[in-house]
Amino acid sequence: MTAAIVTDQLVKRYGSHEVLRRIDLEVLPGQVVCVIGPSGSGKSTLLRCINHLEQPDDGTVSVDGEVIGVTHRRGRTVPLGAAELRRQRAEIGMVFQSFNLFPHMTVLHNLVLAPMKVRGQSRAEAERRARVLLGQVGLADYAGAYPVQLSGGQQQRVAIARTLAMEPKVLLFDEPTSALDPELVGEVLDVMRKLAHAGKTMIVVTHELGFAREVADRVIFMDEGLIVEDGPADQVLSNPREKRTAAFLSKVL
Ligand code: ADP
Ligand code: MG
Protein backbone atom coordinates (compact mmCIF):
# COMPACT_ATOMS: atom_id res chain seq x y z
CA MET A 1 0.00 0.00 0.00
CA THR A 2 1.35 3.44 -0.92
CA ALA A 3 1.49 5.71 2.12
CA ALA A 4 -0.76 8.76 1.85
CA ILE A 5 1.81 11.09 3.40
CA VAL A 6 5.52 10.52 3.95
CA THR A 7 8.08 12.92 5.32
CA ASP A 8 11.64 11.72 4.95
CA GLN A 9 14.29 13.42 7.09
CA LEU A 10 12.37 16.68 6.87
CA VAL A 11 14.31 19.73 8.03
CA LYS A 12 13.13 23.34 8.35
CA ARG A 13 15.28 26.15 9.69
CA TYR A 14 14.62 29.79 10.38
CA GLY A 15 18.09 31.29 10.48
CA SER A 16 20.09 29.12 12.85
CA HIS A 17 16.94 27.80 14.58
CA GLU A 18 16.22 24.25 13.42
CA VAL A 19 12.45 24.09 13.81
CA LEU A 20 12.01 20.62 12.29
CA ARG A 21 14.88 18.29 13.02
CA ARG A 22 14.79 15.38 10.55
CA ILE A 23 11.16 14.37 10.85
CA ASP A 24 10.29 10.90 9.55
CA LEU A 25 6.56 10.36 9.38
CA GLU A 26 4.37 7.95 7.47
CA VAL A 27 0.57 8.21 7.37
CA LEU A 28 -1.39 5.41 5.71
CA PRO A 29 -4.50 6.01 3.60
CA GLY A 30 -7.52 6.53 5.83
CA GLN A 31 -5.45 7.08 8.95
CA VAL A 32 -6.26 9.91 11.34
CA VAL A 33 -3.20 11.23 13.13
CA CYS A 34 -3.49 13.84 15.87
CA VAL A 35 -0.42 15.92 16.65
CA ILE A 36 -0.03 17.42 20.10
CA GLY A 37 2.81 19.31 21.73
CA PRO A 38 3.75 22.61 23.33
CA SER A 39 3.59 25.94 21.54
CA GLY A 40 6.63 26.43 19.34
CA SER A 41 7.39 22.71 18.96
CA GLY A 42 7.01 22.84 15.17
CA LYS A 43 3.51 21.46 14.65
CA SER A 44 2.34 24.21 12.29
CA THR A 45 5.65 24.21 10.48
CA LEU A 46 5.30 20.49 9.86
CA LEU A 47 1.87 20.97 8.25
CA ARG A 48 3.07 23.99 6.30
CA CYS A 49 6.02 22.00 4.93
CA ILE A 50 3.75 19.11 3.96
CA ASN A 51 1.67 21.36 1.72
CA HIS A 52 4.68 23.44 0.71
CA LEU A 53 3.48 26.71 2.17
CA GLU A 54 7.01 26.54 3.56
CA GLN A 55 9.88 25.11 1.59
CA PRO A 56 11.82 22.45 3.49
CA ASP A 57 15.55 23.02 3.88
CA ASP A 58 16.29 19.33 3.61
CA GLY A 59 14.45 16.06 3.23
CA THR A 60 11.30 15.41 1.24
CA VAL A 61 7.54 15.25 1.52
CA SER A 62 5.53 12.80 -0.57
CA VAL A 63 1.77 12.62 -0.95
CA ASP A 64 0.29 9.52 -2.51
CA GLY A 65 3.73 8.53 -3.74
CA GLU A 66 4.56 11.85 -5.42
CA VAL A 67 7.33 14.09 -4.11
CA ILE A 68 5.96 17.57 -3.38
CA GLY A 69 7.53 20.76 -4.65
CA VAL A 70 10.64 19.42 -6.36
CA THR A 71 11.59 17.30 -9.32
CA HIS A 72 14.76 15.81 -10.71
CA ARG A 73 16.36 17.14 -13.84
CA ARG A 74 19.67 15.80 -15.12
CA GLY A 75 20.42 14.29 -11.76
CA ARG A 76 19.74 17.53 -9.88
CA THR A 77 16.86 18.42 -7.58
CA VAL A 78 15.06 21.54 -8.81
CA PRO A 79 11.91 23.33 -7.58
CA LEU A 80 8.71 22.61 -9.46
CA GLY A 81 7.17 25.31 -11.60
CA ALA A 82 4.24 27.29 -10.23
CA ALA A 83 1.58 25.45 -12.25
CA GLU A 84 2.86 22.02 -11.25
CA LEU A 85 3.08 23.06 -7.61
CA ARG A 86 -0.50 24.36 -7.76
CA ARG A 87 -1.63 21.02 -9.15
CA GLN A 88 0.09 19.17 -6.31
CA ARG A 89 -1.16 21.51 -3.62
CA ALA A 90 -4.75 21.04 -4.80
CA GLU A 91 -4.44 17.48 -3.46
CA ILE A 92 -3.46 18.67 0.02
CA GLY A 93 -6.35 20.33 1.82
CA MET A 94 -5.54 22.61 4.74
CA VAL A 95 -7.85 24.06 7.36
CA PHE A 96 -6.47 26.88 9.51
CA GLN A 97 -7.29 28.15 12.95
CA SER A 98 -8.43 31.46 11.45
CA PHE A 99 -10.88 30.12 8.77
CA ASN A 100 -9.49 32.44 6.05
CA LEU A 101 -12.76 32.73 4.12
CA PHE A 102 -12.97 35.44 1.46
CA PRO A 103 -15.04 38.06 3.32
CA HIS A 104 -16.45 39.80 0.24
CA MET A 105 -17.85 36.57 -1.24
CA THR A 106 -20.91 34.56 -0.32
CA VAL A 107 -20.50 31.12 1.20
CA LEU A 108 -21.35 29.52 -2.15
CA HIS A 109 -18.86 31.72 -3.99
CA ASN A 110 -16.16 30.77 -1.47
CA LEU A 111 -16.81 27.11 -2.26
CA VAL A 112 -16.94 27.25 -6.06
CA LEU A 113 -13.96 29.51 -6.73
CA ALA A 114 -11.09 27.01 -6.58
CA PRO A 115 -12.93 24.07 -8.17
CA MET A 116 -13.75 26.29 -11.16
CA LYS A 117 -10.29 27.86 -11.40
CA VAL A 118 -8.04 24.92 -10.55
CA ARG A 119 -10.20 21.91 -11.39
CA GLY A 120 -11.87 23.46 -14.42
CA GLN A 121 -15.38 22.66 -13.22
CA SER A 122 -18.31 24.51 -14.78
CA ARG A 123 -20.13 26.90 -12.47
CA ALA A 124 -23.22 24.67 -12.51
CA GLU A 125 -21.21 21.58 -11.55
CA ALA A 126 -19.21 23.44 -8.88
CA GLU A 127 -22.40 24.89 -7.37
CA ARG A 128 -24.12 21.51 -7.34
CA ARG A 129 -21.18 19.97 -5.48
CA ALA A 130 -20.90 22.95 -3.15
CA ARG A 131 -24.54 22.59 -2.09
CA VAL A 132 -24.01 18.90 -1.34
CA LEU A 133 -21.00 19.77 0.83
CA LEU A 134 -22.85 22.57 2.63
CA GLY A 135 -25.52 20.00 3.47
CA GLN A 136 -22.86 17.67 4.84
CA VAL A 137 -21.53 20.34 7.21
CA GLY A 138 -25.05 21.32 8.27
CA LEU A 139 -25.18 24.65 6.43
CA ALA A 140 -27.50 23.95 3.51
CA ASP A 141 -29.43 27.17 4.20
CA TYR A 142 -26.37 29.45 4.21
CA ALA A 143 -25.23 29.40 0.57
CA GLY A 144 -26.12 33.06 0.09
CA ALA A 145 -24.76 34.33 3.40
CA TYR A 146 -21.55 36.30 3.81
CA PRO A 147 -18.91 35.06 6.29
CA VAL A 148 -19.47 38.00 8.65
CA GLN A 149 -23.07 36.88 9.11
CA LEU A 150 -21.94 33.48 10.45
CA SER A 151 -20.69 32.36 13.85
CA GLY A 152 -17.09 31.22 14.14
CA GLY A 153 -18.20 27.60 14.21
CA GLN A 154 -20.25 28.07 11.07
CA GLN A 155 -17.37 29.86 9.34
CA GLN A 156 -15.02 27.03 10.18
CA ARG A 157 -17.52 24.49 8.83
CA VAL A 158 -17.68 26.51 5.59
CA ALA A 159 -13.88 26.51 5.49
CA ILE A 160 -13.88 22.73 5.83
CA ALA A 161 -16.49 22.41 3.07
CA ARG A 162 -14.40 24.70 0.88
CA THR A 163 -11.39 22.48 1.42
CA LEU A 164 -13.43 19.36 0.62
CA ALA A 165 -14.71 20.98 -2.59
CA MET A 166 -11.28 20.41 -4.11
CA GLU A 167 -11.49 16.69 -3.31
CA PRO A 168 -7.99 16.63 -1.86
CA LYS A 169 -6.24 13.33 -1.22
CA VAL A 170 -5.28 14.34 2.31
CA LEU A 171 -6.55 16.84 4.88
CA LEU A 172 -4.39 18.87 7.25
CA PHE A 173 -6.00 20.72 10.17
CA ASP A 174 -4.01 23.28 12.17
CA GLU A 175 -5.80 23.86 15.49
CA PRO A 176 -9.17 24.19 13.74
CA THR A 177 -11.09 24.89 16.95
CA SER A 178 -8.59 27.04 18.85
CA ALA A 179 -10.12 30.35 17.77
CA LEU A 180 -13.67 29.32 18.66
CA ASP A 181 -15.81 30.10 21.68
CA PRO A 182 -16.06 26.89 23.73
CA GLU A 183 -19.73 26.31 22.89
CA LEU A 184 -18.90 26.25 19.15
CA VAL A 185 -16.06 23.72 19.30
CA GLY A 186 -18.32 20.67 19.28
CA GLU A 187 -20.05 21.40 15.98
CA VAL A 188 -16.69 21.62 14.19
CA LEU A 189 -15.34 18.47 15.84
CA ASP A 190 -18.56 16.69 14.79
CA VAL A 191 -17.83 17.49 11.15
CA MET A 192 -14.23 16.30 11.52
CA ARG A 193 -15.39 13.10 13.23
CA LYS A 194 -17.66 12.38 10.26
CA LEU A 195 -14.77 12.91 7.84
CA ALA A 196 -12.62 10.53 9.86
CA HIS A 197 -15.33 7.88 9.81
CA ALA A 198 -15.76 8.40 6.06
CA GLY A 199 -12.17 7.23 5.64
CA LYS A 200 -10.38 10.51 4.94
CA THR A 201 -6.65 10.68 5.59
CA MET A 202 -6.15 13.41 8.18
CA ILE A 203 -3.40 15.04 10.21
CA VAL A 204 -4.95 17.15 12.95
CA VAL A 205 -2.94 19.46 15.18
CA THR A 206 -5.17 19.94 18.18
CA HIS A 207 -5.43 20.55 21.89
CA GLU A 208 -8.73 18.64 22.00
CA LEU A 209 -7.46 15.50 23.70
CA GLY A 210 -10.95 14.03 23.99
CA PHE A 211 -11.29 14.22 20.22
CA ALA A 212 -7.81 12.73 19.76
CA ARG A 213 -8.59 9.86 22.11
CA GLU A 214 -11.86 9.08 20.39
CA VAL A 215 -11.05 9.64 16.72
CA ALA A 216 -7.29 9.34 16.15
CA ASP A 217 -5.69 6.10 15.06
CA ARG A 218 -2.39 7.56 16.23
CA VAL A 219 -1.25 10.40 18.40
CA ILE A 220 2.10 12.08 17.88
CA PHE A 221 3.74 14.19 20.56
CA MET A 222 6.16 16.79 19.21
CA ASP A 223 8.66 18.80 21.19
CA GLU A 224 11.48 21.06 20.00
CA GLY A 225 11.20 19.99 16.37
CA LEU A 226 11.21 16.25 17.05
CA ILE A 227 8.62 13.52 17.14
CA VAL A 228 9.14 12.43 20.73
CA GLU A 229 6.41 9.81 20.80
CA ASP A 230 4.12 8.20 18.22
CA GLY A 231 1.62 5.50 19.05
CA PRO A 232 -2.02 4.45 19.41
CA ALA A 233 -4.12 7.26 20.89
CA ASP A 234 -4.88 5.43 24.12
CA GLN A 235 -1.29 4.47 24.74
CA VAL A 236 0.19 7.93 24.13
CA LEU A 237 -2.54 9.79 26.03
CA SER A 238 -3.07 7.39 28.94
CA ASN A 239 0.20 5.57 29.23
CA PRO A 240 2.97 7.66 27.62
CA ARG A 241 6.38 6.02 27.36
CA GLU A 242 8.32 9.29 27.29
CA LYS A 243 8.80 11.56 30.28
CA ARG A 244 8.34 14.66 28.13
CA THR A 245 4.94 13.43 26.89
CA ALA A 246 3.80 12.74 30.43
CA ALA A 247 4.97 16.17 31.58
CA PHE A 248 3.09 17.87 28.73
CA LEU A 249 -0.09 15.89 29.39
CA SER A 250 0.00 16.66 33.10
CA LYS A 251 0.04 20.36 32.23
CA VAL A 252 -2.83 20.33 29.74
CA LEU A 253 -5.19 17.80 31.33
P1 ADP B 1 3.72 25.27 16.90
O1 ADP B 1 2.74 25.23 15.78
O2 ADP B 1 4.04 23.91 17.45
O3 ADP B 1 3.33 26.22 17.99
P2 ADP B 1 5.44 26.52 14.95
O4 ADP B 1 5.64 25.49 13.91
O5 ADP B 1 4.48 27.61 14.65
O6 ADP B 1 5.11 25.81 16.33
O7 ADP B 1 6.83 27.21 15.28
C1 ADP B 1 7.98 26.48 15.60
C2 ADP B 1 9.12 27.44 15.83
O8 ADP B 1 9.44 28.09 14.62
C3 ADP B 1 8.81 28.55 16.83
O9 ADP B 1 9.97 28.76 17.61
C4 ADP B 1 8.52 29.73 15.97
O10 ADP B 1 8.85 30.92 16.62
C5 ADP B 1 9.42 29.49 14.77
N1 ADP B 1 8.87 30.06 13.53
C6 ADP B 1 7.72 29.69 12.92
N2 ADP B 1 7.52 30.39 11.79
C7 ADP B 1 8.59 31.23 11.67
C8 ADP B 1 8.98 32.21 10.71
N3 ADP B 1 8.24 32.47 9.62
N4 ADP B 1 10.16 32.87 10.92
C9 ADP B 1 10.91 32.61 12.00
N5 ADP B 1 10.61 31.69 12.95
C10 ADP B 1 9.46 31.01 12.79
MG1 MG C 1 0.90 26.15 15.55
Automatic annotation (TrEMBL):
It is found in: Cell membrane. SUPFAM superfamilies: P-loop containing nucleoside triphosphate hydrolases (SSF52540). One of its GO terms (molecular function) is ATP binding. InterPro entries: AAA+_ATPase, ABC_ATPase_HisP-typ, ABC_transporter-like_ATP-bd, ABC_transporter-like_CS, MetN_ABC_transporter-like, P-loop_NTPase. The keyword Plastid does not apply. It is a peripheral membrane protein. PROSITE patterns: ABC_TRANSPORTER_1 (PS00211), ABC_TRANSPORTER_2 (PS50893). Keywords: ATP-binding, Cell membrane, Membrane, Nucleotide-binding, Transport. Residues 5-249 form the ABC transporter domain. It holds the Pfam family ABC_tran. The keyword Magnesium does not apply. This is Amino acid ABC transporter ATP-binding protein. It comes from Actinomadura graeca.
